[in-house]
Amino acid sequence: MKKMFLFLSLFLLTGCIPEPEIDIDGVQQGEVYVNDQTINIDEEAAGEYTLHLNGNVIQNDHTVSGNGEYELTITAKRWWNEITKTIAFEIDDEPPAKPSFKDEVKPLYYKEANFELEKEEDVTYKVKIDYEPFDISQAYTKEGTHKLYIQSIKDNGLVADRKETFEIDNRTYSRHEVDAFKKFFFHNEDQEGTKFIKWSDHVGVHVYGEPTATDMKALESNLQTINQILPVDLNLRESQPFAGSNRINVHFVPTYQFKDYGFNEELRNNDYMVVGYAMPTLLTHDDELFETKILIGTDTDQQLRKTTILHELMHALGFYGHFENNPNSILYPYTDTNLTELSSTDKKLIEILYRKDIKPGMTEAEVEQTLNDWIVK
Ligand SMILES: [Zn+2]
Questions:
Q1: Ligand 1 centre from 335 Cα, in Å?
Q2: How far apart are CA 334 and CA 327, in angstroms?
Q3: How many CB atoms within 10 Å of residue 289?
Q4: How remote is the CA of residue 203 from the centroid of ligand 1, in Å?
Q5: What gap in Å lies between CA 207 and CA 22, rounded to an integer?
Q6: In angstroms, what is the span from residue 237 Cα to ligand 1's centroid?
Q7: Nearest-angstrom CA–CA distance, 205 and 292
């Protein structure tokens, strides 16, 4: 019987003393928190316990605050059973940096665009082009205008993002066309200083005075041609629009009335007679065209007037100056050419001026550098 009793008491001792348990609320292994965290241990389950945070004793319900890496060591003991657990966690309330690139995103690319992100530690990046996920280690080659969206996601869950627009434009220029552009803007005796002024939004074309049906037909067909090249549209407007919109005012009036419309120079001298006139009348603070005036002399020959309309429209696009020695261009200052169409070089000049990366204040070298990828070698 005595043996039996010992056996039973041994059974009791091993079976009835519960193991200590470590049950922690507030922090978890490997987590990164944005806010303060309060550490709570289930005292009942733990029995006799100690809590150390980065080596210092803390009490139950201790609140951890401040950015940093933390290590919580818990020991729990019940009679001779002792267990230990370690929980590493971090508090970090800093958001990730706004995504940035090794080279800034350019407005225009030839054939392909490559983007390289400046990567931060503990940050993952989600990239989308035109709302579709994109692997940024690849080159992007689809022609047209695109939206690039990058989101930085830090391991604390905070995010930052960035949106860019870029274009892949594969239209090329010959050496001759680029040289003509540079000659016009940087070596033009008619134009003091070089300014790239252009329209940045759609333009209403308002006609005043007494155009003939032929004048209107010429004007409309010229606008159509120009609109195929421009990133903005020039549209004839019938009604009086509100004053706050981009506009070209075209006045069909006899040349002797030009003085009433702000033309203060001689109409005639030995060499020439003025038949048309164009001048920008309002610019925005960013040197964008806002209002331009065109005068077309109605007391001139109809055929000549067709040339004049196109010539003055070309000025109104931002080409203030002439090609004195190039009768193939509509920017030739005399009407004896009877030109009624833009030359292929004229079209390219418009195309170049209206590129997003051709900006006011650029030097000739900067223009050359900017166009370099597009010049056919
Ligand atoms: Zn002119």
A1: 10
A2: 8
A3: 22
A4: 21
A5: 86
A6: 24
A7: 10
How many angstroms separate the alpha carbon of residue 314 from the centre of ligand 1? Answer: 8
The pLDDT value recorded for residue 244 is 66
Output the CA 276–ligand 1 centroid distance in Å.
7
Gap from CA of 358 to ligand 1 centroid (Å) = 23
Going by C-alpha positions, the residue among 229, 271, 219 that lies closest to residue 249 is: 219
Domains of the chain: 16-91 (2.60.40.10), 100-168 (2.60.40), 175-374 (3.40.390.10)
Q: And the tokens for 208?
A: 């005043």
Gap between the Cα atoms of 277 and 258, Å rounded: 9
As a whole number of Å, the end-to-end CA separation of the chain is 110
- What helix, strand, coil percent values describe the chain, rounded to 5? 25, 30, 45
Residues 159 and 143: beta-carbon distance below 8 Å: no
Q: For each successive 10 residues of the chain (377 residues), what is the average pLDDT?
A: 52 62 95 96 93 96 96 92 95 95 95 96 96 96 97 95 96 96 88 79 94 97 96 84 80 95 85 88 88 95 95 95 92 89 96 94 94 95
Length in residues, the chain: 377
57 CA distance to ligand 1 centroid (A)?
Answer: 87
Measure 311 CA to ligand 1 centroid, in angstroms: 6
Kindly give the distance from the C-alpha atom of residue 365 to the centroid of ligand 1, in angstroms, as a whole number.
27
Instruction: Report d(CA 212, CA 149) in Å as an integer.
Output: 51
What distance in angstroms lies between residue 339's CA and the mean position of ligand 1's atoms? 13
The count of C-alpha atoms lying within 13 angstroms of the C-alpha of 60, restricted to the half-sphere facing its C-beta, is: 15
Cα–Cα distance measured from residue 17 to residue 47, given in angstroms and rounded to the nearest whole number: 11
**How many A from CA of 306 to the centre of ligand 1?**
14
**What does pTM read for this prediction?**
0.79
Count of alpha carbons within 13 angstroms of residue 48, beta-carbon side: 6
In whole angstroms, give the CA distance from residue 22 to residue 43.
9
Cα of 172 to ligand 1 centre, how many Å?
Answer: 27
CA of 305 to the centre of ligand 1 (A): 13
Q: Residue 270: its pLDDT value, please?
A: 73
